[in-house]
Amino acid sequence: MLNRSLAPERHHIQNMSLIEPEKLVFDNGLKVFVFRAEDQELVKAEFVFQNHFVSPENPLLHTCLSHMVKEGTHTRTSAQIAEEIDFYGGYLMPEYSFDHTAVSLYTLTKHLGAVLPVLYDVLTNAIFPEMELETYVRNNSQTLQISLQKNDYLARRLFYKQLFGATRYGVTPTIEAYDQLNREDLMALYKRQFQPANATLILSGNITPEVLLQVRALFEGQWLNGSDGLTVVAPEFPYFAAELVVENKPDALQSAIRLGMPTINRTHADYPAVQFVNTLFGGYFGSRLMRNIREDKGYTYSIGSASASLKHSGLFTVATEVAVESTQATLIEIEREFSNLRNELASDQEIDLVKNYMMGSMLGSLESIFSHADKFKSIYFSGLSYDYYKHYSATIQQMTASRVQDIALRYFDYDKLTKIVVGTL
User: Fold this and answer.
1) Hey, is 48 helix, strand or coil?
2) How far apart are CA 240 and CA 262, in angstroms?
3) 238-292, pLDDT tens digit by residue?
4) CATH number of 244-423
5) In what order do the strands lie in the sheet with 244-248?
C-alpha cells in the first residue's frame, strides 16, 4: 500500500526524446522538413528565408518587407487576403529576425487546399502597395517618436550600436530611415530573397500524402527561381572595447541600465555551460541578480541577464531599470555579483536547482509537434545536428561548482562589459 506520509523519491531529469524530421528537396531547390503528428487536425507551413543584405546593411528594409508582404498581391488586396484566411479559420503570420524572415500559415488540414493558394500568392506575387507603405511608414514613425522618449529603448539602441556597429545587428531605426523606405527597394529585396533556393519549408502537424501533394503542386511545380543567385556575406563587426556610455536625462525618474559584450554563440562547445552560468547569475526569477537587487535591496522590479545566439555572433547582456538615486548602488551590486561568481564556489543546492530548472524548462517546451519543429530550427539554422541537444543535456547534468567558476572566469568579466546608462549616474 502506498505510504502517503513519505515524499516521492527525487531524481534528476535524464535524456530528452526529440522527434527528427523527414527531409525532402524539391526540384527547384526548396528544402522541406516534415514533422508528422497524425493525431493533429492542424497543419503549420513555415517558409523561412535567409536574409540578404547589401552594403550598407539596412535591416529596416527587412522588417518592412516582413510586415508588408501580405498587404496585397497582383490578384488580392490585403483585405481579401485576410478575409480568405479568416473564413477558413486559418492564420497567416510573417516574422522577422536578424538573420531570417519567415512566413507561417496555420490551418486545419481539411482547409489546406483552400488557403494554400493564398500563401503561394503572397510568396510569389506581392506588390507592396504605395498606400499601405505610406501607412506603415507613418505609423512606425509615430511609434518610434514615442519610443525615443523612453530610457530603456534608448539604452537598448546604444547597446546594440556599441556591440555591433553599422551592421544588421547594430543598426536601429531612425525617422530618416523610415522616410527613405520605398517600394522599389522593397520589390528588389523581395525578388532576390523570396526564392525557393533561398527558402526552407518546415511542415508540421497532420502531414498526409495528400497534404504533400498539394504542397508540391504549388511550391515545386510552379515556383521558379530568379535568374540571380544569392551571395550571403557575413557582417564585418567593428572592434569591440568596453566603455561606459552615459546619456544624462536630468528630469528622469528612472535610469535604464544595460551591460554586455559580444560572446560565443550556439556553435561553440562552451555555449550550454555559458547558458547554465547565465541562468544561475541572472537568467531566471530565482537568480542571484534577482535575489540581491530586487528581493534584498529593492532597487528594481526586474533585473535579468541573457546569453543569446545569433548566426554570426552571440551576445551577453544584463538589463534593468532603477530609480535614479539607486543607479550607482545598482552598478556596485552588479559588479559585486560578478566578483562573487568568479571568486566563490556555488553551493551544490544552487547548482541542483538550476539543473532542474533548465532541464524542466527544456522538457516543458516540448508539448507538441510544433515545438519539436522549433527545436529543430534552432540547430538547423546554426548549422548543427541533434547531437547538440545530447551535448546540451550532458553539459547541464555534469555542471559542478568548479565548472561554474571556470566558465565565469572565462566569459563573465565585469571589466570587459560595455556599460550603458540612460538617466542619471
Assistant:
1) strand
2) 8
3) 999 999 999 999 899 999 999 999 999 999 999 999 999 999 999 999 999 999 9
4) 3.30.830.10
5) 244-248, 418-423, 254-263, 314-323, 303-309
Q: Give CA–CA dist 320/317, Å, rounded.
A: 10
80's enclosing H/E stretch is helix 78-87
CA–CA separation, 222 and 329 (whole Å): 63
**Residue 318: what are its φ and ψ, rounded to 5°?**
-120, 135
What cell was used for 88? 477558413
Amino acid present at 93: M
Cell numbers standing for residue 327:
543607479
For helices 209-219 and 112-125, give the axis angle rounded to 10 degrees. 30
Helical residues (DSSP H) of 251-347, grouped into ranges: 271-278, 288-289, 327-343
Give the integer Cα–Cα distance in Å for 116 and 113: 6
Q: Domain locations in the chain? A: 22-219, 244-423
- Evaluate whether 391 touches 272 at the Cβ level (below 8 Å): yes
**Cα–Cα distance for residue pair 165/346, rounded to 1 Å:** 36
Burial class (CB in 10 A: 0-12, 13-18, 19+), 360: exposed
**Any idea which fold 22-219 has?**
Cytochrome Bc1 Complex; Chain A, domain 1 (3.30.830)
Q: State mean pLDDT over 82-103.
A: 95
* Ranges of H-type helices in 259-368: 271-278, 288-289, 327-343, 348-364
CB 203 within 8 A of CB 373: no
**Number of C-beta neighbours around residue 24 at 10 A:** 16
What burial class does residue 243 get, using C-beta atoms within 10 Å of its C-beta: 0-12 exposed, 13-18 middle, 19+ buried? exposed
Grid coordinates in use for 404?
A: 561554474
Give the DSSP letter string of 99-164.
SEEEEEEEEEGGGHHHHHHHHHHHHHHB---HHHHHHHHHHHHHHHHHHTT-HHHHHHHHHHHHHH
22-219 and 244-423 share one fold: yes
Average pLDDT, the chain: 94
What is the 3-state composition of the chain as percent helix, strand, coil, each rounded to the nearest 5? 45, 20, 35
Tell me, what amino acid is at 375?
A: K
Is the pLDDT assigned to residue 1 strictly greater than 60?
Answer: no
